[in-house]
Amino acid sequence: MELAERLLKGDKRACARLISLVENEDKEAVDILKKLYKHTGNAHIIGITGPPGGGKSTLTDKLAKMLRKEGKKIGIIAVDPTSPFTGGSILGDRVRMSDLTTDPGVFIRSMGTRGHLGGLSKGTQSAIKVLDIYGADYIFVETVGVGQSEVDIVKTADTVVMVMVPGLGDDIQAIKAGVMEIGDIFVVNKSDLEGADRTALEIEMMLDFKKHNGWRPPVIKASATEKTGIDNIIEKIKNHKNHMVKTGQFHIRREENIKLEILNLVKEKLMTMIAKKSNDSNEIDSLYKDVLEKRLDPYTARDKIIDLVKK
Amino acid sequence: MSEKPIRVLVAKPGLDGHDRGAKVIARALRDAGMEVIYTGLRQTPEQIAAAAIQEDVDVVAMSILSGAHNHLFPKVVKLLKDQNADDILIIGGGVIPEDDIPGLKEAGIAEIFTPGTSTTEVIEYIENSVKKSS
């Protein structure tokens, strides 16, 4: 049977193979996604992000288990960093999700960033589509441990859960731009540790300064290992989607994300075209040289490259 | 970055809690440019096979020091075969007596690496075998 049909029927092996193919930018996979694109859009995509060691994988494990009790089908994509030096990686998020491995209603996939910055890998968005077609009701996307500017997840997920831990930094961290601005739900994980109340309060204070579009992000104290606060997080995840749908923001957010995705695809394609052009002839390379030797400026060089690609 | 990295599942079946060897291998494979999925300790053959399928790996590398290799290694082979995933290369390592090796190979373990093997040897073996099959 063809991969596409098997995927539609919820075949795990087909799902796994297609994710590999899209990750490796295989042409066959793109053709399949083109054909099956109309089957996407049903899953609730939940981003799980936060600093390294905050407990993202353990929390994802617990959230998935709770949703499994409702009989929901779950997809999990866990992204870990690829070494920029060797291209290799150790993807270790499954360690925290061992029990879910053999659950027939759960599909877990680890991905290396493969040179992509922003907290996700280049193939993540396509992998989400594959899991969506596969029939997942909820897709958790766990980012790499983030610092302050890895905000790709907000352009990908419907709901972003920001996982914080007590005692990470002083209150000034909470007013910095970047990751702190993208949470739809804040979780203070490991709240059995000292300082959880203070961290929760600091996040609340940060939220006080922000304008909210009808949804003020809740701040939830939880402990993934002690299994406290998990039901509350699930409830808020569902509330968030309901709120978004009711106010029309869900549609707006997806539209914005699709626009960004398409523009990114165009940008990537252009880069490949330029790379090909510069392989085929030395016209582009000689432009670089011209700029280096001040016969040309970078802006004119840009226009010339665009003209070359258009030909 | 368009060249496809080799994906390897490094797993510890059985009940022994010694994963230093598995971690050294994981690290060496990473440094050789592979994507290593590490699953942690005390995995059942069912968990290893399920993870190998979901991750669509080229190789499953198992390490065991408890002596249960004759039971656990072939079971993983069988589970993968049952799910039509017998194209995955399966290798094993750990404290495994010489006498057991022929039987394990018979059961479908492509190669067994015992203590003293250099990581380069393992890397070369994987690179050559995966290239041949793809």
From TrEMBL, chain B:
<keyword id="KW-0479">Metal-binding</keyword>
<keyword id="KW-0846">Cobalamin</keyword>
<feature type="domain" description="B12-binding">
    <location>
        <begin position="5"/>
        <end position="133"/>
    </location>
</feature>
<dbReference type="GO" id="GO:0046872">
    <property type="term" value="F:metal ion binding"/>
</dbReference>
<dbReference type="InterPro" id="IPR036724">
    <property type="entry name" value="Cobalamin-bd_sf"/>
</dbReference>
<keyword id="KW-0170">Cobalt</keyword>
<dbReference type="GO" id="GO:0031419">
    <property type="term" value="F:cobalamin binding"/>
</dbReference>
<dbReference type="GO" id="GO:0016853">
    <property type="term" value="F:isomerase activity"/>
</dbReference>
<keyword id="KW-0413">Isomerase</keyword>
<protein>
    <submittedName>
        <fullName>Methylmalonyl-CoA mutase</fullName>
    </submittedName>
</protein>
<dbReference type="InterPro" id="IPR006159">
    <property type="entry name" value="Acid_CoA_mut_C"/>
</dbReference>
<dbReference type="Pfam" id="PF02310">
    <property type="entry name" value="B12-binding"/>
</dbReference>
<dbReference type="InterPro" id="IPR006158">
    <property type="entry name" value="Cobalamin-bd"/>
</dbReference>
